[in-house]
């Protein structure tokens, strides 16, 4: 946690026990969560247009080793579970 930026540290601290979820934070403190979602979107390279809500964090681009994925949703290949 020492390397995390303050926004990322606060979110991790609040949600690490999973008693408080992302959507539960929206009920408890919508202004803070919107600011955090804006921060995530800006760091992912997908800032929200003025006056619009930012994309959910799972829908922001993800970069790893020079490859940029459109979002953070991954699906396991179905063929892995076939029995032959």
Describe this protein's structure.
Helices cover 37% and strands 7% of the residues. With 84 residues, it is mostly helical. It has one domain. A hairpin with a 2-residue loop joins strand 1 (62-64) and strand 2. Helix 2 packs across helix 3 (30-43). The mean pLDDT is 87.
Summarize the structure.
This protein has 84 residues and is mainly α.
Helix and strand topology:
Layout: H1 6-15, H2 22-28, H3 30-43, E1 62-64, E2 67-69
Antiparallel strand pairs: 1-2
Helix pairs in contact: 2-3
Protein name: Bifunctional salicylyl-CoA 5-hydroxylase/oxidoreductase
Organism: Burkholderia cepacia
Distance between the termini: 45 Å
Order of helices and strands: HHHEE
Fraction of helical residues: 25-40%
Report the β-strand fraction as a percent range.
5-15%
Q: Domains counted in the coordinates: how many?
A: 1
Strand neighbour order, sheet with most strands: 1-2
**Mean model confidence by pLDDT:** 87
Shape: globular
List unreliable stretches of 5+ residues. Answer: none
- Structural category is mainly alpha
Largest sheet: 2 strands, antiparallel
